[in-house]
Specification:
mainly alpha; two-stranded parallel ribbon; two-stranded antiparallel ribbon; globular
């Protein structure tokens, strides 16, 4: 049993680190790869240091369970990164504003995950058979992930965003880093708030998979929460570090799917055979590490076509075009001279004509009510 003061100290430390992060990123700017790498190292070091604290406080077995949960959550967060990149592209969120969205998204994720963990632990303690449901759900999710071709994002289907449209009108353009502005005595939401809501609800869906996966390693509420918290804290830095290259890890999704299948089977067989924590750590690390190595070998091989290069995730985030549509195909015989120049001109015209509708039109298609921020008369 973990004393209350340990819980209080951990929560205070997490909130303190979030406050430091917010203070250092007070002024909007584009996060560089070097800055993201530095913060990633900081968050990982903090997570591993806390694992050492667990070892001293609760023993080696508990430390192994914490590390297993941390590794699972950290690995599954990679899937979040890909979807977040698609969402930011869809909403055309400027790079300098993305950190603010992710910061508040992470803060909300910590609160919601804490509620999920408390509820999940209560369910397992009260109705032990629910552990089999969690295991079956993880097994199904792992198989579905292995068969799925890639991540998809459909913000226009988000029920919470549709509810926001009915309650609060929305400005046409971004208003700096503000989520809400006041115009003519009315409060208006900005597209940045729409992006935050979709990011938050998307992470909520991911939590339905990741939290039961950690319960497969340990049912200790303290270890489940802290492993989730320290993994999620580094999500922002991990996003800016890997967002534009995550698609190059072609086999990582298979590795993640295999991890979900493994922990699902482990959960189902928990009353028949209890897999030692060292064995679980070895299997999880081997699956993730093997998929990363295979992906890097695949990425290092010369691409046979532009389509293959796109399939490996080149230019993942394109805020000029949020629909993820691909460029013109290069198939067919090559042309030279005047015909080539004329063909290139036609291709350019087709690309312009195929551009997505402007930002306000995209939001209209989503059913979001728009209000011109310069309209002082109050007409929508």
């Amino acid at each position: 049993m973990v004393e209350w003061w340990v819980w209080a100290g951990v929560v205070a430390f997490i909130l303190g680190m979030l406050a430091v992060d917010l203070a250092l990123h007070r002024n909007p700017h584009e996060v560089t790869v070097g800055e993201a790498a530095g913060w990633s190292a900081v968050w990982i070091a903090l997570g591993l240091t806390f694992g050492a604290f667990v070892w001293v406080k609760l023993g080696g077995v508990a430390a192994g369970e914490y590390l297993g949960g941390y590794l699972i959550e950290k690995s599954l967060s990679v899937d979040n990164i890909f979807v977040f990149a698609l969402l930011f592209g869809y909403f055309r969120v400027p790079l300098s504003y993305q950190h603010r969205v992710l910061f508040w998204g992470v803060l909300g994720a910590l609160v919601l995950r804490a509620l999920f963990i408390v509820g999940g632990a209560a369910l397992i303690d009260t109705f032990h058979w629910t552990i089999y449901l969690f295991g079956a759900a993880l097994l199904f999710t792992g198989v579905r992930m292995a068969r799925h071709g890639g991540a998809e994002a459909h913000p226009e289907r988000n029920a919470v965003l549709k509810l926001l449209r009915r309650v609060v009108p929305m400005t046409e353009d971004y208003e700096g880093q503000r989520f809400v502005v006041r115009r003519a005595g009315r409060r208006l939401a900005t597209p940045l708030l729409a992006a935050l809501i979709v990011v938050e609800t998307t992470d909520l869906v991911f939590a339905l998979d990741s939290i039961p996966a950690v319960f497969a390693v340990t049912t200790n509420t303290f270890l489940v929460f802290t492993s989730n918290a320290f993994a999620v804290l580094g999500l922002r830095a991990l996003y800016f570090l890997f967002a534009q290259t995550i698609g190059r890890f072609a086999y990582l999704k298979l590795g993640l799917a295999a991890v979900l299948v493994f922990v699902g089977v482990k959960m189902i067989l928990t009353d028949v055979y209890r897999v030692p924590i060292w064995a679980s750590l070895t299997v999880i690390a081997a699956l993730i590490g093997g998929s990363v190595v295979a992906s890097l070998r695949h990425a290092g091989a010369p691409a046979s076509s532009a389509t293959e290069r796109r399939g490996r995730g080149a230019d993942l985030v394109d805020h000029g075009r949020g629909d993820g549509s691909e460029g013109n195909s290069q198939e067919g015989p090559q042309e030279t001279g005047h015909d080539s120049s004329r063909r290139e001109g036609e291709d350019d015209r087709q690309r312009v004509e195929s551009q997505d509708p402007p930002h306000d039109e995209r939001l209209k298609n989503m059913g979001v009510g728009l209000v011109d921020g310069s309209n002082q008369g109050g007409d929508q």
